[in-house]
Amino acid sequence: MAWHCSGTTNQEMVAKLKEAGILTTDRAEAAMLAVDRAKYCHEPDPYVDRPRRIGYNVTISAPHMHAYALSILSDQLCDGAKALDVGSGSGYLSGCMAFMVGPRGRVIGIDHIPELIEISTKNVSKDCPHFMKEGRIKFVVGDGRLGYAAEGPYNAIHVGAAAETLPQQLIDQLAPGGRLICPVVTCESFQRLQNLLQVDKNRDGTVVKKKLMQVSYVPLTDPATQLLNEY
């Protein structure tokens, strides 16, 4: 499906996402206005609504996918919440999440490519330096498929790459009342497709899964495989 939410400025892009009914909460809108995509997408026309390469065979997702993610996780990205961004890449979505959880909250961005952690740290430090000074955002090198138990449990978990199967470790690190969204590979009629799954953990610890939409993400894999393959 083609989206037409491109803009020439960050504000215009956000306005079009809202008009299209993709950006559905005031808090998600405020986050995308506060965190400037151009500081994370270092190419011409950063507000075009499509994924852009950022090196190391990964991309910064299209703005409409960020808008969906932030809208879906808005209730969980409340003041003082903890969040995990798996495959944090450029640091853009981690920055938006940090805006939403506020100075009492904490966001962990995890990526297995050290150079991307350096890039994301630099991007956020230039765009929203107070996020780093306040300690509300931290980027770590690690295998996101295993989560980051040291800082859990998390109220919100976002996975920015497609998993072959939904990682149980991430479900385990979800707090009661928390929500996880993750693209997961599925095979239908001999085709490999990806479904964006929403996983909610109830207060009693039971888990409810829901398919949201078909998506197209780079694979959630190990560093060697990622660096060897062009997607």
List low-confidence stretches.
none
Which radius of gyration do the C-alpha atoms yield? Answer: 16 Å
The portion of residues assigned to helices is 25-40%
Distance from N terminus to C terminus (CA atoms, Å) equals 19 Å
Structural class per helix/strand content?
A: alpha/beta
Largest sheet: 7 strands, mixed
Strand order of the largest sheet: 5-4-3-6-7-8-9
The percentage of residues in β strands lies in: 25-35%
Task: Calculate the mean pLDDT score and round it.
Answer: 91
- Global outline: globular
Helix count from the secondary structure assignment: 8
Give the total of beta strands. 9
The run of helices and strands is HHEEHEHEHHEEHEEEH
Descriptive report:
- Helix 2 crosses helix 4 (92-101).
- The protein is α/β, with parallel strands linked by helices.
- It has helices at 10-19, 26-34, 63-72, 92-101, 114-127, 129-133, 168-172, 223-228, and strands spanning 52-55, 58-60, 82-86, 106-111, 137-141, 154-159, 174-188, 191-201, 207-214.
- The longest helix has 14 residues, at 114-127.
- It has a seven-stranded mixed β-sheet with strand order 5-4-3-6-7-8-9. A two-stranded antiparallel ribbon has the order 1-2.
- The chain contains eight helices and nine strands.
- The chain is globular and about 40 Å long.
Give the tags.
231 residues, alpha/beta, seven-stranded mixed beta sheet, two-stranded antiparallel ribbon
Topology record:
Layout: H1 10-19, H2 26-34, E1 52-55, E2 58-60, H3 63-72, E3 82-86, H4 92-101, E4 106-111, H5 114-127, H6 129-133, E5 137-141, E6 154-159, H7 168-172, E7 174-188, E8 191-201, E9 207-214, H8 223-228
Parallel strand pairs: 3-4, 3-6, 4-5, 6-7
Antiparallel strand pairs: 1-2, 7-8, 8-9
Helix pairs in contact: 2-4
